[in-house]
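Sequence, please.
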């Protein structure tokens, strides 16, 4: 029994020496093009997904495979040590009772425990390379996704202003037709400053209101520029399809300046019940508010900068309309 115990312990030492030897893992480097439009359709889609979802945030890569390997290895080591402890006790008891009739069952238990513990110890060390390779694959995957996200952000940042200008060029004539106006001063109000947000990306969509002013004010509101959908049109093409909601979804209203009591701008305030909550379709910075003689209020999403010129003009025309009554 003493010989078996020594051989068992020596086997542990041998496996430890074998397991601690250095090993090579395959380094993974995936090359990507230098621009978004050089990507294939699949990678363009992934690139935009990452860009719109994360912006400048880091790509989170939870190493499920690596965690699984490490947890599995920890369990193997735990059971190996547990069985080894029991086996060591059996061996010592067997040696002390070498002349007893109970030694045979203890010897069998020792042999079974020795085989199982050594097998678990061997598997524990053999997983080291798999764990290291899985960690390398996770690193390469994260680096790959970071690069895809970067290409998507740079593409959107370089083009979104052009998309907005083109969407305005397309929708404004339609708004003029909807309002049935001619030869009037026009104002384009965006619901929020569409310069880049802290995420590094513009808003996914932009609310737009068109004002046409003369002796009256004609309003076409509820226009939505879908910048995210426009960007996704590049997944299968190098030319965009400009996305906006249809004119039958727009609102058209008209007021005479003599019917306007007050023209104000109110910054968006979620705690103020007098201003409705921000539209779920697009972010809102504030509202142009027209108070009418019938005590009703009309509110249109806009930025203060965009509406300043109109407010000055409208107040002047409202005053003139009151004087001529």
């Amino acid at each position: 029994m003493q010989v078996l115990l020594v051989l068992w312990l020596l086997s542990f030492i041998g496996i430890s020496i074998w397991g601690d030897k250095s090993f090579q893992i395959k380094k993974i480097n995936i090359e990507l093009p230098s621009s978004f439009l050089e990507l294939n359709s699949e990678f363009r889609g992934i690139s935009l997904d990452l860009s719109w979802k994360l912006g400048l945030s880091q790509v989170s890569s939870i190493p499920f495979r690596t965690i699984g390997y490490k947890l599995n290895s920890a369990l193997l080591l735990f059971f190996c040590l547990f069985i080894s402890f029991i086996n060591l006790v059996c061996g010592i008891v067997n040696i002390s009772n070498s002349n007893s009739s109970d030694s045979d069952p203890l010897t069998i238990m020792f042999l079974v425990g020795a085989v199982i513990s050594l097998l678990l110890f061997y598997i524990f060390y053999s997983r080291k390379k798999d764990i290291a390779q899985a960690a390398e694959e996770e690193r390469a995957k994260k680096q790959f996704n970071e690069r895809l996200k970067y290409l998507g952000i740079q593409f959107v940042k370089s083009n979104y202003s052009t998309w907005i200008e083109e969407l305005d060029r397309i929708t404004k004539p339609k708004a003029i037709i909807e309002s049935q106006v001619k030869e009037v001063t026009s104002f384009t109000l965006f619901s929020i400053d569409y310069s880049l947000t802290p995420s590094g990306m513009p808003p996914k969509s932009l609310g737009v209101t068109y004002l046409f002013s003369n002796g009256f004010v004609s309003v076409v509101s509820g226009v939505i520029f879908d910048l995210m959908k426009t960007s996704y049109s590049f997944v299968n093409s190098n030319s965009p399809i400009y996305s906006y909601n249809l004119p039958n979804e727009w609102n058209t209203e008209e007021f005479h300046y003599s019917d306007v009591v007050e023209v104000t701008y109110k910054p968006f305030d979620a705690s103020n019940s007098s201003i409705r909550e921000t539209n779920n379709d697009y972010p809102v910075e504030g509202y142009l508010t027209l108070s009418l003689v019938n005590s009703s209020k009309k509110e249109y999403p806009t930025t203060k900068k965009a509406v300043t010129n109109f407010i000055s003009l409208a107040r002047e025309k409202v005053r003139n309309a009151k004087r001529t009554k």
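The first strand starts at residue 185 and ends at 190.
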